[in-house]
């Protein structure tokens, strides 16, 4: 089998030189997108988690519902503390989506 000519190798290097900028551009785009996800989304979620964890709720622990006997029955059927926690998470997610839609409305697109 005959060896390829040096012109073939030069042609392959020229084609590779044309492809490398596109590959580096694609890799740079993925690095940029990963950085945005890491800094903006994960960083903000970690900040929110740390802020929630640092809340002092010690003054809320001594609630006395002795005057309202029916609240024990309601709590047995529908756990109130869990329901309040779920509602808090629901409204937080709802507020986050509304804020995201509001911020997204400033991005000019064909639909605007």
Tell me about the largest β-sheet: none
- As a percent range, the share of strand residues is under 5%
Derived structural class: mainly alpha
Mean pLDDT: 79
Distance between the termini: 63 Å
Radius of gyration: 29 Å
Count of β-strands: 0
Count, helices: 3
Quick summary of this structure?
The protein is mainly α and about 110 residues long. The protein has helices at about 5-55, 70-75, 80-105.
What this model shows, in words?
72% of the residues lie in helices and 0% in strands. The protein is mainly α and 112 residues long. It has 3 helices and no strands. It has 2 domains: 10-54; 63-112. It has helices at residues 6-53, 70-77, 80-104. The mean pLDDT is 79.
Question: Topology of this structure?
Answer:
Blueprint: H1 6-53, H2 70-77, H3 80-104
What distinguishing features does this structure have?
112 residues, 2 domains, single chain, mainly alpha
């Amino acid at each position: 089998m005959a060896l390829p000519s040096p012109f073939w190798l030069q042609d392959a290097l020229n084609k590779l030189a044309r492809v490398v900028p596109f590959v580096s551009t694609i890799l740079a785009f993925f690095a940029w997108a990963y950085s945005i996800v890491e800094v903006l989304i994960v960083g903000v979620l970690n900040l929110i988690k740390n802020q929630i964890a640092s809340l002092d709720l010690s003054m809320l622990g001594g609630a006395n519902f002795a005057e309202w006997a029916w609240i024990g029955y309601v709590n047995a059927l529908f756990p109130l503390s869990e329901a309040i926690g779920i509602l808090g998470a629901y409204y937080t997610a709802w507020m986050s989506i509304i804020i995201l839609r509001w911020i997204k409305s400033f991005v000019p697109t064909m639909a605007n």
